[in-house]
Each structure stands twice: as C-alpha cells, then as structure tokens.
Amino acid sequence: MGNELVIYNTLTRKKEVFRPLVEGKVGLYVCGPTVYSDSHLGHARPNITFDLLVRYLKYLGYKVRYVRNITDVGHLENEEEETGEDKISKRARIEQLEPMEVVQKYMNTFHHNMRQLNTLSPDIEPRASGHIIEQQQMIDLILENGFAYEVNGSVYFDVEKYNEKYQYGKLSGRNLDDIRTNTRKLDSQDEKKNPFDFALWKKASPGHIMQWPSKWSNGFPGWHLECSVMSTKYLGEIFDIHGGGLDLAFPHHECEIAQSTASLGKESVRYWMHNNMITINGQKMARSLGNFITLDEIFSGNHKVLEKAYSPMTIRFFLLQAHYRSTMDFSNEALKASEKGLGRLMDAVEDLSNLPDSGNSTVDVSGLKEKTFAALSDDLNSPVAIASLFDGVKIINSVKNGTDHLSKQDIEDLKLFFHTVIFDILGLVDEKDKDGAKDEVLNKVVELLLNLRVEAKSRKDWHTADSIRDGLNSLGIEVKDTKEGFEWKFKKIDS
RNA sequence: GGUCUCUUGGCCGAGUGGCUAGGCGGCGGUCUGCAAAACCGUAUACGGCGGUUCGAAUCCGCCAGAGACCUCCA
Q1: Third-level CATH fold of A279-432
Q2: Does strand B come within 7 Å of the CB of A312?
Q3: Using the CB atom, is residue A12 less than 7 Å from strand B?
C-alpha cells in the first residue's frame, strides 16, 4: 500500500509513522480483562479498537502476533475489605466457588461476548497464574539490579532508586515530585519505603486462597508484573505496540515500563496506544453510579437505562463511528442512530450485488477508496472512513435509481472495496443473515403471502392487502412495495 | 489540591488556518390506493471575551463549564 500507517504514540504524544522492528511483522500486546465479573461495555472499547488495528495491519500485509492476557490473579481490592483481599478470591468466597472456577466462568463469558462483537481471537492469550515462575524470575532480575527490596517476605519496587537512573512517570507525564505529594497513603503499607513503591511479590495472609511458594514467602505476584513478563516472553525484550485503556496508563503501564527497564536495562515498548473511556449519558460508567452495563445486558436490553436491546454489531459500529482516542458517550438516542445507519450501510452492500452495469462511470470510485484508506492509515480514523463509506452508499443508491452510472469494472471494484473495508477491516457482520432469513420454507411462505397480496391489490381489495401487510409486520417482517412488486426483510425486533 | 484533556448545529461525532465531514432526527420532495420503507434535496455550528493573521471553529491568552487520572478499573 502506498500510504503509511501513522499511529499516535502516548509516550511521545505525537503521531508517528509506524515502522515495525522486524520488517513485515508486528508484535502487539494488549491488556486483557481481569476475570472476576461479567464483561461490560468498557471491555468492548479496547477490544474493538485493537481488533481494528489487527485487522488493518493484516490488510496492510503484516504478519501480526497478537497477545492479550487474562488476569486471573493478583489484583488487590483496597476499597472494600480491610485485608486487601484478592479480587478473585473474594468473589470465590461469595459464590462458594473455587477461584479457578470463577476465572473459568467469567473468562468464558468474556470470550463469548468478544465473539459476539466479532473480534478476532488473540494468537496467544497468556494467563498470569500460568506464569508465576517467570514472574519470580523477573523479580530476581530486578532485585539483582538493585531496583527492589524485600521486607517480611514481600518484595517492592524501589521507585526512588529507579528514578535516579531512569525517569519514572514519563508515559503519563508525571514526575516523581508530583507523585510524591499526591500519592495517597494507605494503611498496612508501612512496609514500603515510599508510598509510591509498588509490590512485585506480596506475602499472602494465611487465609488467602490464591498463593504460590517462592523464596520470599508463600504469596502472589504484584499486579503490574504479569504484563511485563508475558509480553517479554511472547514478543521479545523489545516489541512494537502495547495497547490498553487510557485508565491503565497510570500507574499500570508506568509500572510496566519501570519493571521492564529495571530488569532488562532497556525499554520494551516502541509504540504505546491507549483507547479513551466510555461515558453513559455524559457520566463515567461506574457501579456506584448505577449506570454500569454488562454486554449481556446491552445485547438483551435488560437494564434500566436501556430503552431496548442493541445488537453486538450496533455496538461495534457505534464505537467505530468515534475515534478511539475520543471519549464516547452512550445514550439511547445515539445508539438508535447508529443502528439505523448500520442498517442503511448493509442494505447498500446488498444492493451492490444487483447493481446494473450501465456503461461509463459518472462517479469516482478510486477517489473514494483513497479517501477511506487514507483515513484508516491516519491513526485508525474509522469515523472518517465510515463517512466515506456513506458517500459510497449515496453512489450505490444513485446508480440503483438511475441518476448515476457505473461501469462493470467500477462495480466490481466497489464491491471488493466495500466488502474489504466493511467486513474484513471494520469487522462488521450483516446480522440480518442470522435471524432466520436462511429458512427456505419460511421465505417461500412469505413470498406466497405477498404474491396473494399483489393479487388483492390488483383487485383493489385494500382490506386483504393491508391485513397481509400488517400481519407480516407484526411478525417482524417489513414489506416494501416497489414498482416491480415487493421487497421484504426481517426487521430487528425491538424488545 | 496536583497533572492532563475536552467544550462543534436537536442528538452522536469528524475536522484543526481559507474548500459540504458523516450518521440519526427535523423540514421539503419523489414513490405509493393509503402507508411503511427507501431515495433525493435542504436548514441549523464551532462555550465566552480579547489577541495574532489578509483570513480562525482551527494558533495564543484570559474567563466559564465538563471530564479523566492521581486508588482496582477498559
């Protein structure tokens, strides 16, 4: 491809031309979920964003190794319990399940939801619990290099020491003095030299369910370590792109940089990419605000802020209609707008396969293609790419109406272009196909009824014609009269 | 309190020195037995006040408002 992919690098706060470490290959690491509850809307954003990235990189001809972790150990929950109990073990106690049973359950729903959103599976999906030894090895290295200290069976990263040689806070634009004055002092952290130091290994209390033996104590790894370890293991000491939510930039990614640098003596990540957050009716989505929506809830419409169900593709399309670095506001009005727009786009795709070849083209197909790919190459500007797809929709409709014309070659071009961008790169799926439209008997029955209706109409028997139409309508089948007779399709059924 | 970001028409959301973003909704029209749908056309905008400039929604300053992170978070 002629146009070069440009990516916004959080580390430099600039758009940079993407050049992989190894020509033709891309190593990508994305922070995955902590599997202790149902997947929510917030999970849709990064996974769709980086799915788009993977799909576009592949389209550009790169061989991509996409690594996305599952966090199944080690995140402390300071806010609730006095003990700082592990999220997963806490949930296990509540539900009377084995910790690994909890992990499995929510990992399964996460995978199911991600399939519904038509995201590609990562090539490697490593789990923190499966890399305890590697994490211990990295702690050893950091200790050897003098950037960590052991206290009472726990090991902490020495941020101050690290900052003497390197720069802690560079990713999130902080310096240690700012952090020093603004880090909250928590109870039971008196083991640490400084409040901003973070745990690499934490000694477990006797009742703590998830723990592993180590030379320091029976315990569990610190909550930033897994990503440093697993990205290095599967992508190498230096790799191309690390992605995640903007909320992870500090402290999680900052700590990752520190850990990798402290253990390897160099930085691992070449391009940092962060997707922005989702708000609901202008508010941050949070459990405490009562506007926290799981993906299952949005797909079923089963939540008080939702007027109806929204399909996975509506969510996907909606998210792609905003740039990944902008905050994105969910509202019923906005979602319904996307649902309709997506329907119109998909109708155009369908029309494209029956478009009349009408001699010389009166529209510029190649200009449309250039515009679209230029947008995608400009830091994945999917909203602009989609806008130009709608320019294409306008062309398709005009040709259908006979006000514009397309040559046979241009029709083929347009068809390939639409399919490539809509299905391969944007990863959309035509959901109409799934709703039973493949049932041949049903199709024939509907056609039979509609043919009867045409007869009724020719007799000017409006009563019969209308009752057929209304009856089908109430069954979720939309009837459109056309010059030739009729068209019909399954409507999305509102709940 | 510290650091940072944002404020675009009824809603969502691009753009970032001069040229229509786009979607949804509105309005007008085409089509129709009537509808619905679809299609076509169209109006409405850059938080406020200053400054830089031939020219600013776009750059700079101030003010107002919103949000994010600083604590697990996608």
Answers
A1: Isoleucyl-tRNA Synthetase; Domain 1 (1.10.730)
A2: no
A3: no
According to CATH, the topology of domain A19-275 is Rossmann fold (3.40.50)
A280 contact partners, CB below 8 Å, separation of at least 6: A41, A291, A293, A305, A329, A330, A331
Domain coordinates of chain A in residue numbers? 19-275, 279-432, 435-490
Chain centre to alpha carbon of residue A44? 4
- Is the shortest CB-to-strand distance from A471 to strand B under 7 Å? no
The reply to whether A77 Cβ lies less than 7 angstroms from strand B is yes
Find the range with the poorest average confidence among A128-137, A179-188, A374-383: A179-188
Nearest residue to B25 via alpha carbon and C1': A337
- A176 vs A178: CA distance, rounded Å: 5
Q: Note the CA–C1' distance, A379 to B32, in angstroms.
A: 46
Give CA A404 to chain center in angstroms.
Answer: 38
Q: Which residues lie across from A239 on neighbouring strands?
A: A269
Kindly report, residue by residue over A12-25, the tens digit of the pLDDT.
888 999 999 999 99
Q: Name the nt closest to A243 by C-alpha to C1'.
A: B74
Mean of per-residue pLDDT scores for chain A: 88
Query: Is A289 in contact with A345 (CB distance < 8 Å)?
Result: no
Give the other-Cβ count within 10 Å of A57's Cβ. 21
Residues of A (346-365) placing their beta carbon closer than 7 angstroms to any atom of strand B are 347-348
Instruction: Please give the Cα distance from A241 to A329 (Å, whole number).
Output: 27
> Are the CB atoms for A159 and A262 separated by under 8 Å?
no
Instruction: Please identify residues in chain A, positions 182-201, with a C-beta within 7 angstroms of any atom of strand B.
Output: 182-184, 196
Is the CB atom of residue A484 positioned under 7 angstroms from any atom of strand B? no
Closest CA to A454 of A487, A476, A491: A487
**Is any atom of nucleic acid chain B found less than 7 Å from the CB of residue A309?**
no
Q: At residue A219, what are phi and psi to the nearest 5 degrees?
A: -165, -150
- What SS3 state is found at A365? helix
DSSP A384-452: HHHHHHHHHHHHHHHHHHTSS---HHHHHHHHHHHHIIIIIIS----GGGGTTTT-HHHHHHHHHHHHH
State whether the beta carbon of A334 lies below 7 angstroms from any atom of strand B. Answer: yes
Per the structure, the residue whose CA is closest to nucleotide B72 at C1' is: A77
Protein-proximal positions, strand B, CB < 7 A: 1-4, 10-15, 21-25, 31-41, 66-74
* DSSP structure class, residue A327: -
pLDDT, residue A443, reads 82
By mean pLDDT, which of A316-325, A359-368, A404-413, A432-441 is the weakest?
A432-441
